Amino acid sequence: MPETWDGLEEYRPELVALCYRMTGSAHEAEDLVQETYLRAWRSRASFEERASVRTWLYRIATNVCLTALQGRGRRVLPAGLGAPGEDPDVPLAAAEVLWVTPWLGDPAHVAEQRRMLRLALVASAQYLPPRQRAAFLLREVLAMPATEIAQVLDTSVPAVKSALQRARARLDELTPAPENFAEPDSPAARDVLNSYMAAFEAADVAALTRLLRDDATLEVIPSGLSLSGKRACVPFLAEHVLTAPGLYRMFPTVANDQPAAVAYHRERTDAPFRPFGLAVLTTDTTHLASITTFLDPELVGTAGFPDDPDQVWSPHDGGRTARDSGHPAASAR
To answer: Which of 17, 25, 86, 138 could form a disulfide with 110 if both were Cys (CB 3.0 to 4.6 A apart)?
Structure first.
């Protein structure tokens, strides 16, 4: 094993990102990277320096993921259970499914194909068979040549090329054509995100209506709710969510390289706020195209925020909240 073993931790963020893209679960990705390092340590004596350490680690991580995915169903977003509905009065029912979870890692540490971290693309990739998914990610994210992919997957180069062709065709069917969506740290995205948070905190249905595109979608995990179109989303939010001002408090962050908001909620205005969940947004330069809400209080802490929203602050702006500073992420003291 080369002397670079002590420096292998530098590859952890990108390995976690690969395992996340493969599995659709950020928590599972962390566990699989731990297994990757364990296997690398055990096999260090057999390492051959014909390949780079990075490529060697990616090979181990890919095979760790393929083993984990054997005989298991895919992770989905609510729309993956069927076409999004248009009736906000459809009863909510928790489905016994594996959900795609949000990525809260820093995309700046994952230079290659950050776009492939987007929530919709991660969900679409789960529809590919695992080995086909691996071939696609190794090629599109890592730019690995077909000969190396064939070695990783223990197959032939023609089989790899065929898998790539099928994967691209399938993803073209599943993933909407690229649009002029705003980057999460752009002024346009921050303006839309701040408007979204302000509308929620004030229970301003009219403001949220103006913010949503006509074709906007709303998904809620784990309820399985999936609505399509402003005419479906707004009545549901008005009746079930934005029932009174002062029940929500939100702060900006980034998830899946998209604008996002951590949310605190209270049952009444004289009660304390509690961690509530995370909303991941797709925005263009002026409107919201989609809202994917994860009703998981633990995500607030995972995103780096405290249990008490009064403790949220920004080191970038003299202690004011990140919301006040307009910074796309917040820090917790």
So the answer is: 17
Q: What are the strands, taking DSSP E only, across 195-323?
A: 212-221, 225-228, 248-255, 258-265, 274-283, 288-294, 312-313
Q: How far is CA 142 from CA 31, 47, 324, in A?
A: 21, 21, 38
pLDDT digits (tens, 9 = 90+) for 194-213: 999 999 999 999 999 999 99
Element (H, E) at 204: none
| Helix boundaries (H) for 104-156 | 119-125, 130-140, 146-153
H or E segment and range at residue 166: helix 157-174
- CA triple 68-219-197, angle to 5 deg: 115
- Indicate the DSSP class of residue 178: P
Pull the structure tokens for residue 322: 């990140």
Main-chain phi, psi angles of 102, to 5 degrees = -75, 155
Helix (H, G, I), strand (E, B) or coil at 332: strand
Integer Cα distance of 154 and 148 in angstroms:
10
Angle (nearest 5°) at CA 249 between 246 and 255: 150
Percentage of the chain lying above the pLDDT 70 cut: 83
Q: For 268, phi and psi rounded to 5 degrees?
A: -150, 165
Q: Which two tokens stand for residue 121?
A: 């693309």
Between 16-20, 65-69, 286-290, 321-325, the lowest mean confidence (pLDDT) is in 321-325
